[in-house]
């Protein structure tokens, strides 16, 4: 984690969500890729270990945030997609102590009025866990370009 | 209407730490059969532990639950130390209690604000409630985050922490981070205290029932990390003697084991603890509790939400005291020595009594393991409660009302299947 929670927001806050273990590491990997590509000069970079509702600490209305998480959309491993926020929030299920995932957290932020004005959600298609992971090297090149496009959008 | 034949099936409690369902048949205003079915495939953790060394055990048992991994680690480490003939220092014991405070705080805060409050304030779920009661939701999230920070002081991370070892901790908390958490705890104290009166002011159902409370009891602390196993019917047992009075058994409709005390259902968890140990609360918490007028011991299971609030107040105060007493000159661990043996451990997980037993070989590797979690111990009591509550509520109520009351009763125990009970589907067949 390169920034500290609660510090003065940089122009962008990029947050990778997942876990360094158990095969859910794409959000963390993305943060590594961005760090290696020099993004720390442009944004605060965070890798969060299954934050659940604690993600709300990083979401303020005046923050500009990019969230990166693994997704399973039946695409080729490593495929990168920007996920429309409204489509994501509509999938939120009633939250529970054990299941408070990204959609539920964003729905709660919306209900509390704390969704950032600028919020992008990027999904990276995961693999099945046993596949050839050579795609990760290609994605490592493509991913910073995708993020650059978003940041350049503002 | 009340004499109708009813068959309620809640086919899927959905996926959490367990997959379950509720089945109920009634006739002539009385429930004939009621089964809380847990049909999650067995997880085989006890078999996974066989052949594993001490540190592997601590890492593996943490994976049993994402909400209370500390409880599993604390109980396992206690049992392993007993098997190895090791004794943790009083200082390490206090550190463990401090870390445990974090888990109670985060678990109770999450349960009260995101699971229980929607039931008692009349909302479908926490997201729906957040628009009308944003301050309550924010308070819950603040307290939950603070609990996670406490765990992180020791464990490196709050989910499946990695800081614990047999004999103590890999390192003591960093003083600057401990000081920052102490500051936050002091700021949270007013929130924690206010929660006792807030939960006592909720319009809770009045549903007195007869049940046996079981919890650890410590000679001078509000029991969390250690104590003897006691009940309000005279039980007073060493942790090692648990199996003499408690029995686990299979039932056809559940892959979770049922536990009984001398053949009878019993309650573990916050209300059982408060019933048995309210005299061990610290003076400010006793005062806050007395101000509510709540009479203890309570026979109303819905007072569990008040018990959780009381325990939040207690652990915030306790964590403040323990952090103030931190002393970095004290070693955070004693050296590990292993030998063949058998050890038992019992602690109070947020959801109630958790008991472990390990037999280890001369290399310290597990030969056999037995883990009795709180939800398994409460399962028979939940079924009894559902039967009593739904009959008291009135079977003349429509299906949606019965479903909601059933969900509320189940959620009140904060079982690991509680998440699922927020979206029960009910089907009623009238014969």
Helix content of chain A: 25-40%
Oligomer: heterodimer
Q: Give the overall shape of chain B, derived from the CA principal axes.
A: globular
Q: Determine the most extensive contact between two protein chains.
A: A-B, 21 and 33 residues
CATH architecture of chain B: Orthogonal Bundle
In N-to-C order, the SSE pattern of chain B is EEEHHHHHHEEHEEEHEEHHHEEEHHE
Span of the ends, CA to CA of chain A: 25 Å
Number of strands of chain B: 14
State the major sheet of chain B.
Answer: 4 strands, antiparallel
Q: Output mean pLDDT of chain A.
A: 81
Query: How do the strands of the widest beta sheet of chain A line up side by side?
Result: 2-1-3-5-4
- Count of helix runs of chain B: 13
Give the DSSP E fraction of chain A (strand runs of 2 or more residues): 15-25%
Computed over alpha carbons, the radius of gyration of chain B is 21 Å
What is the CATH topology descriptor of chain B? Cytochrome-c3 Hydrogenase, chain B
CATH class of chain B: Mainly Alpha
- Give the overall shape of chain A, derived from the CA principal axes: globular
Question: How many structural domains can be distinguished in the coordinates of chain B?
Answer: 1
Characterize the structure shown.
The complex is a heterodimer of chains A (154) and B (431). Chain A has 154 residues and is an alpha/beta fold. Helices cover 29% and strands 20% of the residues of chain A. Chain A has four helices and five strands. Chain A has helices spanning 26-36, 85-89, 102-112, 135-151, and strands at residues 13-18, 44-49, 64-71, 80-82, 118-125. In chain A, α1 links the parallel β1 (13-18) and β2. Chain A is globular. Residues 1-10 of chain A have low confidence and may be disordered. Chain B has a single domain (45-377), classed as Orthogonal Bundle (Cytochrome-c3 Hydrogenase, chain B). Chain B contains 13 helices and 14 strands. In chain B, the strands form five sheets. In chain B, strands 3-2-1-14 form a four-stranded antiparallel beta sheet, covered by helices on one side. Chain B has a three-stranded antiparallel beta sheet with strand order 6-7-8, covered by helices on one side. A three-stranded antiparallel beta sheet of chain B has the order 11-12-13. In chain B, α4 (90-121) runs antiparallel to α6, α7 (175-200) packs parallel to α10 and α9 (270-277) crosses α11. The A-B interface holds A 49-50, 53-54, 56-57, 92-100, 104, 107-108, 111-113 and B 15-17, 66-67, 107, 110-111, 114-115, 124-128, 130-131, 134, 137-138, 141, 144-145, 148, 157, 159, 414, 416, 418-420, 422-423.
């Amino acid at each position: 984690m390169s920034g500290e929670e609660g510090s003065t927001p940089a122009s962008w806050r990029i947050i990778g969500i997942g876990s360094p273990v158990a095969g859910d590491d794409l959000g963390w990997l993305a943060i590594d890729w961005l760090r290696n590509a020099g993004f720390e000069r442009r944004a605060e970079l965070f890798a969060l270990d299954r934050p659940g509702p604690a993600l709300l600490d990083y979401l303020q209305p005046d923050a500009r945030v990019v969230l990166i998480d693994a997704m399973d959309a039946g695409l080729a491993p490593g495929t990168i997609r920007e996920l429309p926020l409204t489509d994501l929030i509509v999938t939120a299920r009633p939250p529970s102590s054990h299941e408070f995932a990204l959609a539920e957290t964003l729905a709660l932020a919306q209900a509390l009025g704390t969704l950032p004005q600028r919020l992008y959600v990027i999904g990276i298609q995961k693999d099945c866990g046993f596949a050839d992971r050579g795609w990760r090297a290609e994605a490592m090149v493509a991913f910073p370009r995708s993020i650059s496009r978003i940041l350049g959008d503002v | 209407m009340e004499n109708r034949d009813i068959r309620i099936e809640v086919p899927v409690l959905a996926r959490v730490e367990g997959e379950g369902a509720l089945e109920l048949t009634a006739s002539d205003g009385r429930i004939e059969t009621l089964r809380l079915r847990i049909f999650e495939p067995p997880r085989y953790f006890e078999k996974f532990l066989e052949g594993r060394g001490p540190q592997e055990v601590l890492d593996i048992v943490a994976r049993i639950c994402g909400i209370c991994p500390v409880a599993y680690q604390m109980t396992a480490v206690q049992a392993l130390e007993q098997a190895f003939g090791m004794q943790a220092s009083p200082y390490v014991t206090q550190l463990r209690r401090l870390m445990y405070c974090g888990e109670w705080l985060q678990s109770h805060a999450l349960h009260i604000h995101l699971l229980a409050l929607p039931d008692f304030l009349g909302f479908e779920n926490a997201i729906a409630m957040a628009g009308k009661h944003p301050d309550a939701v924010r308070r819950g999230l603040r307290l939950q985050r603070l609990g996670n920070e406490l765990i992180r002081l020791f464990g490196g991370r709050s989910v499946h922490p990695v800081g614990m070892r047999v004999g103590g901790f890999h390192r003591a908390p960093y003083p600057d981070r401990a000081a920052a958490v102490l500051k936050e705890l002091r700021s949270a104290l007013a929130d924690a205290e206010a929660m006792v009166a807030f939960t006592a002011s909720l319009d809770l159902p009045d549903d007195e029932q007869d049940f046996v409370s079981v919890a650890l009891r410590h000679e001078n602390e509000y029991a969390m990390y250690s104590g003897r196993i006691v009940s309000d019917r005279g039980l007073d047992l060493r942790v090692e003697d648990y199996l003499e009075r408690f029995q686990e058994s299979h039932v056809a409709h559940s892959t979770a084991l049922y536990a009984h005390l001398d053949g009878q259902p019993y309650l573990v968890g916050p209300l059982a603890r408060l019933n048995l140990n309210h005299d061990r609360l610290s003076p400010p918490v006793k005062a806050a509790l007395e101000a509510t007028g709540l009479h203890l011991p309570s026979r109303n299971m819905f007072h569990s939400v008040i018990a959780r609030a009381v325990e939040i107040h207690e652990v915030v105060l306790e964590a403040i005291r323990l952090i103030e007493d931190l002393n970095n000159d004290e070693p955070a661990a004693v050296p590990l020595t292993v030998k063949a043996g058998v050890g038992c451990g019992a602690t109070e997980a947020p959801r109630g009594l958790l008991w472990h037993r390990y037999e280890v070989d001369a290399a310290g590797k597990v030969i056999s393991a037995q883990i009795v979690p709180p939800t398994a111990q409460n399962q028979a009591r939940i079924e009894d409660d559902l039967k009593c509550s739904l009959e008291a509520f009135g079977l003349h109520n429509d299906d949606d009302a019965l479903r909601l009351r059933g969900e509320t009763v189940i959620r009140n125990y904060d079982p690991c299947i509680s998440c699922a009970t927020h979206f029960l589907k009910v089907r009623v067949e009238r014969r």
